[in-house]
Specification:
Length: 126
């Protein structure tokens, strides 16, 4: 069993930056693919970014590419998301998710992730 706890987030003006992290319990953290998803009010949960267990594979949604950076530290069992040049449309609850192993066919599919954090709110004001 893996528990994911997010920290960070908050309120920021458009053009600003925010970062948050996700701490995972469990001794096999390095074997998990880690991802961030988000859900805006009235919208479906959408993929934001993913990083493979050794960080060799990193992908971003087109909407955040060039603005967001995902990273992980397997020695600390954490994954982070740095968000720059934020836009009002980035407003959402952001969730950390973990998938056992790695499968390129599934990394964008939220149903394939086994563990989820509680979510952290990000609000970008215009």
């Amino acid at each position: 069993q893996v528990q994911l706890v997010e920290s960070g987030g908050g309120v920021v003006q458009a053009g600003g930056s925010l970062s948050f992290s996700c701490a995972a319990s469990g001794r096999t953290f390095r074997s998990y693919t880690m991802a961030w998803f988000r859900q805006a009010p009235g919208k479906e949960c959408e993929f934001v970014s993913v990083i493979s267990w050794i960080g060799g594979n990193i992908y971003y949604a087109d909407s955040v590419k060039g603005r967001f950076t995902i990273s992980r530290d397997n020695t600390k069992n954490t994954v982070a998301l740095q968000m720059n040049s934020l836009k009002p449309e980035d407003t959402a609850v952001y969730y950390c998710a973990a998938m056992v192993g790695y499968n390129n066919n599934y990394i964008y599919t939220r149903e394939k992730y086994h563990y989820w954090g509680q979510g952290t709110q990000v609000t970008v004001s215009s």
